[in-house]
């Protein structure tokens, strides 16, 4: 039954994105089905958003359909199979359902969706700068690693709990091996993905980066010091693979085709490998050390202030596309300390959005369309999927987005304060937030205190986002226009449609 549901979702999506012949690439991340499209004009946005399984859409370098964690990983292979089988149009799915009737005042929700789409398009245009395009490529390297980070992180947390309780002592070493194996070789995977992203041969990128985790590097001396396996971590692997791509491309242009299969791989691995051993490992190791120390000092000395700024500014960073620079930083912290202390603080931004959405629901009792949108987007928001709330509710309204960020700031300040007081609250993986982050929490005082601090931080974020939005999120004009009650039928007049306030 579940398999049929995911198959039906994929079948409903396919014709609404222009059919199989309009799809050039299919991929997915934690929550989104990412599609490359030949002709964007063929996409039926409103009908797509009306599908029960679709939480929203995001237009970036690819067309991204938000399906939520778990669901997207099951729908994607079904969708890929349909695209491959369709060929010249065979197997096309029937048209998807029409947009549902949203009640007596549908115009407000439709106007919010239109404004959200315009804001997404504006953001996409502004994010097409060389720096942000580069950061997007860096994100493309690390995003495919997130499922493994999550799985291994949860297993590591379970193993730590069993060790602390002195349960199953014969099993815990095996769990430790399963949880640690991926992290021990993460440099290889980063190298593989880096080469693929920058146009090289993926396996050569992995081979070049593998030197970083090879035990024999302990016998190599660079800059007067002995190297240690793993030194430089993911940053070194990224640099090593990128250098390997440069060497490979240079060889492809100059080496005769008759000997290319022998010369190019050899020169690529040799040159990039030696450069990694006698330069990149040392430099990347120094950068990784400084990064870890800086993150520790940031929250241990200025925890409340730093948490306030990080929690409050994270969503604007997302809007600017700069949040992608944090992905390798999180991975570096996890590789060094076992968890990243930044992610739980940044996750408070989502809590502020949830609190703001609840306040919007309470402040607009007559706007059936907006309240319907909030109801449908709220539970994904609790689970850390924030796009439906951001683009469907708070951002198009303007002021509520700012007050939602205020809620995130207070939640971040709360978690940061406990870091400052000596209770580290970290995550063993990147990707989830909200309630979905609970299984991945780790810290220096055991799971009980760590979970309690994070849960209290979410509560602070919810409360602060609610209060800030309830009391400061609307002008009188906005309330008048958004919450106009329908005229009684006995008057014979048409019920006034909900409208979106033009001023914020």
From TrEMBL:
GO molecular function, one term: protein-phosphocysteine-N-acetylmuramate phosphotransferase system transporter activity
Occurrences of domain PTS EIIB type-1 (ranges): 7-89
SUPFAM superfamilies xrefs: Glucose permease domain IIB (SSF55604)
Membrane-protein topology: Multi-pass membrane protein
Residues covered by region (Disordered): 87-106
Residues annotated as domain PTS EIIC type-1: 136-488
Pfam families: PTS_EIIB, PTS_EIIC
InterPro entries named among the record's database cross-references: Glu_permease_IIB, PTrfase_EIIB_Cys, PTS_EIIC, PTS_EIIC_1, PTS_IIB_1, PTS_Sugar-Specific_Components
Single GO cellular component term: plasma membrane
Transmembrane segments: 141-162, 174-191, 198-217, 229-247, 259-284, 304-327, 339-361, 451-472
Location of this chain's protein in the cell: Cell membrane
GO BP terms, alphabetized: phosphoenolpyruvate-dependent sugar phosphotransferase system
Alphabetized UniProt keyword annotations: Cell membrane, Kinase, Membrane, Phosphotransferase system, Sugar transport, Transferase, Transmembrane, Transmembrane helix, Transport
Primary location class: membrane
Active-site residues per Swiss-Prot or TrEMBL entry: 29 (phosphocysteine intermediate)
Protein name: PTS system sucrose-specific IIC component
């Amino acid at each position: 039954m579940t398999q049929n549901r995911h198959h039906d979702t994929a079948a409903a999506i396919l014709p609404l994105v222009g059919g199989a012949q309009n799809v050039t690439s299919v991929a997915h991340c934690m929550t989104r089905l990412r599609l490359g499209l030949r002709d964007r004009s063929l996409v039926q946005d409103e009908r797509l958003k009306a599908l029960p399984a679709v939480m929203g859409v995001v237009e970036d370098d690819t067309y991204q359909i938000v399906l939520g964690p778990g669901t997207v990983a099951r729908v994607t292979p079904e969708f890929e199979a349909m695209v491959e089988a369709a060929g010249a149009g065979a197997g096309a799915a029937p048209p998807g359902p029409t947009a549902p009737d949203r009640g007596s005042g549908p115009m407000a929700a439709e106007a919010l969706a239109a404004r959200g789409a315009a804001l997404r398009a504006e953001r996409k245009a502004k994010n097409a700068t060389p720096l942000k395009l580069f950061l997007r490529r860096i994100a493309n390297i690390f995003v495919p690693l997130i499922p493994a980070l999550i799985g291994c992180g949860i297993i590591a947390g379970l193993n730590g709990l069993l060790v602390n309780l002195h349960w199953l002592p014969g099993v815990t070493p095996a769990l430790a091996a399963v949880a640690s194996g991926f992290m021990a070789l993460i440099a290889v995977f980063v190298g593989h993905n880096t080469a693929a992203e920058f146009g090289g041969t993926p396996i050569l990128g992995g081979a070049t980066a593998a030197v970083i985790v090879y035990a024999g590097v302990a016998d190599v001396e660079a800059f007067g010091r002995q190297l240690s396996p793993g030194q430089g971590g993911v940053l070194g692997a990224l640099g090593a693979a990128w250098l390997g791509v440069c060497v490979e491309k240079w060889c492809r242009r100059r080496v005769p085709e008759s000997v290319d299969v022998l010369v190019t791989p050899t020169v690529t691995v040799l040159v990039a490998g030696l450069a990694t051993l006698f330069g990149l490992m040392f430099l990347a190791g120094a950068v990784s050390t400084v990064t870890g120390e800086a993150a520790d000092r940031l929250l241990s000395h200025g925890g409340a202030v730093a948490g306030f700024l990080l929690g409050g500014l994270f969503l604007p960073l997302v809007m600017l596309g700069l949040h992608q620079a944090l992905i390798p930083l999180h991975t570096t912290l996890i590789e060094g300390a076992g968890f990243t202390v930044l992610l739980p603080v940044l996750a408070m931004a989502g809590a502020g959005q949830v609190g703001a959405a609840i306040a919007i629901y309470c402040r607009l009792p007559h706007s059936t369309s907006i309240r319907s949108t909030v109801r449908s987007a709220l539970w994904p928001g609790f689970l850390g999927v924030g796009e439906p709330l951001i683009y469907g509710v708070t951002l198009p309204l303007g002021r509520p987005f700012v007050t939602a960020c205020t809620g995130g700031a207070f939640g971040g300040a709360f978690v940061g304060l406990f870091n400052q007081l000596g209770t580290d609250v970290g995550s063993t993986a990147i990707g989830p937030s909200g309630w979905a982050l609970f299984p991945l929490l780790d810290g220096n005082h055991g799971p009980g205190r760590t979970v309690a601090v994070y849960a209290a931080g979410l509560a602070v974020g919810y409360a602060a986002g609610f209060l800030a939005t309830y009391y400061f999120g609307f002008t009188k004009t906005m309330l008048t226009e958004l919450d106009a009650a329908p005229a009684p039928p006995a008057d014979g007049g048409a019920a006034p449609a909900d409208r979106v306030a033009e001023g914020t």
